[in-house]
Write a structure and sequence with these properties.
The structure is a homodimer.
Chain A lengths: L1 E7 L6 E6 L4 E4 L1 E4 L11 H6 L4 E4 L1 H6 L3 H6 L3 H5 L4 E4 L3 H6 L2 E5 L4 E4 L6 E4 L1 H11 L3 E3 L11 H21 L6 E6 L5 H12 L6 E3 L8 H12 L8 E3 L5 H9 L4 E4 L1 H7 L2 E2 L6 E2 L19 H5 L2 H9 L4 H26 L3 H12 L3
Parallel strand pairs in A: 4-14, 5-6, 6-10, 10-11, 11-12, 12-13, 13-14
Antiparallel strand pairs in A: 1-2, 2-3, 7-8, 8-9, 15-16
Helix pairs in contact in A: 6-7, 7-8, 9-10, 11-14, 13-14, 14-15
Chain lengths: 368, 368
């Protein structure tokens, strides 16, 4: 398991790399679809692979609560349980505890929370987050961190940054699974001094990869991009960099421009289920009445299963009729579209044309 | 387009046949999955074909109301609209008008009803039912009939039978699409004298195929089987016989035993979405707690995509977690199971072993 930097853009911080993981090699920059509960909603493992993906994300918080680590363990780990033969990144559970669960009590030792499913009480420590992810057998595990929402005071952001560092140390010590990489997470909200400090602290622990956490948590896009651009400079060149929770095409372009290698987000599949699908000229909503007799595919340049086989008129009919198939067909398209965007981005970096590619893509993408 | 009777069972009325239709040949006895709104719920056309199907059913009532015949026409017909390259049988709309729509007014001329979607008023005549199905371009079209529910008086059943005959004549006259077979429908509820009369009346119109309608409408199974067994004897040997709305494995076996060639039902896909899946030892519900750590497939002798790739434990987890994927995986299994049952039935008839096959299948199927 290793990361190789293959090429750097000459007029941006964009980079082209290769990440060797336990279940296969990954080309970066890469987008990772989210399989929250051991399933990328409506999509089969075969369809994920056919859409070009070799790494997905799954959520420790959800898997811990349901079906529970005992069942995943006795079913031979997460890959076997969900029949996914490629890589899985698991988060630590922290983000969902702070956004989904109830009655949180944060202590230095860990965090107490109640399940969003049945209200039962649980206590998650850094060590437990490591243990769970080792049971799941994911290829990349994340440390437990405290992700603080925007806006917040500098004092609160500093406290969360300090806790994140203490927890990162404990996670680093607890980690023992040789087939799994453990990534550190930088916090600091939008405060540059805290971002610098957090980067230095987390990088001192020498993780094989680093995530920029605590962005896409409510802050305006221009602030996010400025903080991101600044944050990345404090991360080592020879390790993969992961921007958590970002998945809109325009935001991926911005992230790559700042030197990010990995992205994940529920956006492409969640929006698909709401009828919103990507096209090269920007997103459209398939529910729109203007598509009711439109025999064109979602995007006439797309080669996905949906675009090769179905018209906008049919997809709109399925959506208006409440037919389940459309949730899948839209999701397949959006995932394929994003993977294709990553292929184009990688090619552009290889040819040192990333900046002009990004400008052209964004000029087309804002047309709709 | 023609029907060939290949083999008759020596100790039951079971028959093995071949039905040439506009989009391909069909082996009978056959089960047809239901794609109510131009989609077999949660299943793609490719998956239908992979599960072994070359004919599906779609509902004129639903397609007429949404997306509407104008859109299906301008999208090149139903096959092209839904991207299904094999055969489609469309019903006439009558059954749904009597079971789904509101405020029905039945006249000799036709039936007035209000849409279950928006309450709008519509009037369907036999001629209109023919016209709609010709626009859809289905391979088999059904005449408009009045399907009367059990229990009913003999007087009401006779009135419905007479109307069905009058409408059948008008449908026969109105039909003009050479690439489409039009089937007649026998009514008469559970009254044998009416069944005989209806068969004689409908068969006098010389349709290329006949459906036994008005069964599976509330009557006990033993009465249904007795009436079915009696009804079939009044139908010609050299035409396909279709039992409408039947799809439970044990009922298909009974139907084949009476000489039925074609079946359709929402049961396999609807039950799948409720968690009920077929096994050779009878149906099980995947939600059951006993499956929570069960690494076996739904049925260890099944070769479907679901059974080859996923455990009961995983399917149960998906179901309990509200994950969409399980609706599809269960549906694929149930459809594959039924198609496989039809393959076994056809083989058994060819080898003149249908009766012993049926006895063995039912003895195993009642074990769960």
């Amino acid at each position: 398991m290793s990361f190789t930097l293959l090429k750097k853009s000459s007029n941006s911080k964009a980079r082209r790399g290769k990440l060797k993981l336990n279940h296969s090699e990954i080309d970066t920059p890469v987008f990772m679809p989210v399989g929250t509960q051991a399933s990328v909603k409506s999509i089969s493992p075969d369809e994920l692979y056919e859409a070009g993906f070799k790494i997905i994300l799954s959520n420790t918080y959800h898997l811990y609560l349901r079906p529970g680590a005992d069942i995943i363990k006795s079913q031979g780990g997460l890959h076997k349980f969900m029949n996914w033969k490629y890589n899985i990144l698991t988060d630590s559970g922290g983000f969902q505890i702070f956004s989904l669960s109830g009655l949180r009590k944060l202590k230095e030792e860990g965090v107490e929370f109640t399940s969003h499913i049945d209200g039962s009480k649980h206590f998650l420590t850094p060590e437990k987050a490591v243990e769970l992810q080792e049971i799941f057998g994911s290829d990349i595990a994340m440390v437990l961190d405290e992700c603080i929402k925007y806006p917040c005071s500098e004092k609160d952001a500093e406290r969360a940054k300090n806790l994140t560092f203490n927890w990162a140390k404990r996670c680093r010590n607890a980690h023992s699974l040789a087939s799994q990489l453990q990534f550190g997470i930088v916090q600091g909200n939008v405060f540059k001094n805290l971002r610098k400090q957090s980067s230095e602290e987390i990088c001192s622990l020498d993780f094989p990869g680093y995530a920029v956490g605590g962005l896409s948590v409510g802050e305006p896009a221009d602030i996010r991009n400025e903080v991101l651009d600044y944050s990345v400079d404090w991360l080592p060149d020879n390790k993969p960099r992961y921007l958590m929770g970002v998945g809109a095409p325009e935001d991926i372009i911005s992230g790559v421009k700042c030197g990010i290698d990995m992205f994940d987000c529920v956006l492409p599949t969640r929006n698909a289920r709401n009828g919103q699908v990507f096209t090269k000229n920007g997103p459209i909503n398939i529910k729109n009445a203007s598509f009711k007799n439109d025999s064109n595919p979602i995007d006439d340049s797309c080669k996905c299963y949906t675009c090769k086989n179905f018209s906008r008129a049919y997809l709109r009919h399925l959506y208006k009729s409440g037919e389940l198939l459309v949730l899948r067909l839209n999701s397949i398209h959006n995932l394929y579209f994003l993977n294709n965007l990553m292929l184009d981005i990688r090619k552009a970096i290889e040819e040192d044309e990333f900046k002009s590619f990004a400008d052209y893509f964004l000029s087309q993408y804002s047309k709709s």
